[in-house]
Structure formats: structure tokens, C-alpha cells
Amino acid sequence: MRIRSFSLELGERMEVSGLADGSVLRDQLGPRLWRGRVELHPAPFAQARAMAARLALLQEPGRSFLAWPVDQAGPARDPKGTLLGAAAPQIASLAPDARDLSLSGLPAGYELSCGDGLSFLYGSDPVRHAFHRIVTGSVVADGTGATSVFEVVPSLRAGAAIGAPVTLLRPAFKAVLLPGTVTAGSSERVRTGGASFEFIQTLR
Q: What count of other Cβ atoms lies within 10 Å of the Cβ of residue 156?
């Protein structure tokens, strides 16, 4: 699909309450999920009909797809994966706080930056797709290809495992279309424009 505009944000699921002394309590109500919106470029009728058919299929219950941030296909310092080459990064360590991890299997000197995305599979029945963004500053692999511990957002979920392969190019998560958000667009002369949809991460 030819994307005209794209947005991706990490949703909040929390309850906020204030106390008499002026303090604010924030309670997490559930997992934070990525959600986004896509608007498509105007397309010739035939292409627009084909895309509308695919979106209609994804509106069926139980249908999902893999979404990734199209505005960043790879790390900021290596957007096309040229430096990564055939390296096979994996999770080297997981901190007890469920916020920090480290990687191994990177090229020596490989650099990751704040905002870079990464994904990996975890759990079973079903296997889930984790997508995180780095919030620590520059992370540089040492001579053995290992990084120091760095923080990611959202927090790591139960099931993440040491040794899991990590994807740095087109890191993706499983998503579903949000009901009532699919717009097929309108046709003028030889093109259909204005098609758009919204999606949200699913952990199923």
C-alpha cells in the first residue's frame, strides 16, 4: 500500500485519582498497546478496489496483520540495515525490573539510539509479538557484539526470554483494525482518495 500519512503512539490504560493532600495516584489498568492511523495515497480505481477488499477481509473477526513504523524501517544510525548485515542479534539479559535488557550478536561498534524500535517473539499458545522502543541514549555494542543494559518502553511482558532472536529492521507487532475506523474513500475522475484506517496492537 502507498501510505500518505502514518502515526503510531503508545496508548495509556490507567486510572488517575487525587487525594486530599494534593498527591496524585496512577494505577495501571491493563497492558499499554501500540495504536496508529494510516491514510492512503489516492490510487487508480483497480488498485483502490483491491486495497478495499483486503481491508474488508481484515475487518472479519479473528483477522490480524503485522504492523511496523513505516517512518523508521531500521535504526537511526543504520536505516537500511547495511551495517547490520547478516548479524543475528538476540536478547542477552533481562533485568528484574522488566524495563531493561541487553543484546548480543551485533556487529562490533554497532550503535542503537533513543527511539529505535526492536521486536521479538515471546510466549506460546499463542506466540506473541513484542514491539519496544529504546529510551536510553546511545547504546554501542562492544568488541564481542554485546551491548550494556538499556531501557525500553513499554515494559517487558512475562514470557520474554534470554536467547530470543531480535528484529531491528522493520520491527513489527500483531495488530487488528479498530471497528468503525475503515474509510474506503471517494472516487473522482480516475482515482479514489481519502481511504484510511486505524489499528491497535493485539496480544492474542
A: 20
CA 34 – CA 58 distance, rounded (Å):
18
Domains and CATH numbers, the chain: 1-68+174-204 (3.30.200), 71-171 (2.40.30)
Beta bridge partners of 109: none
The set of residues, in sequence order, having a beta carbon less than 8 Å from that of 82 and lying 6+ positions away, is none
Does the N-terminal peptide bond of residue 126 adopt cis geometry, omega within 30 degrees of 0? yes
Residue carrying C-alpha cell 551485533: 106
CA distance 161 to 75: 22
Mean pLDDT of the 124-142 span: 95
Residue 123 contacts residue 161 (beta carbons within 8 Å): no
- Which pLDDT score, from 0 to 100, does residue 186 have? 82
The model's confidence at residue 66, banded by pLDDT at 50, 70 and 90, is: very high
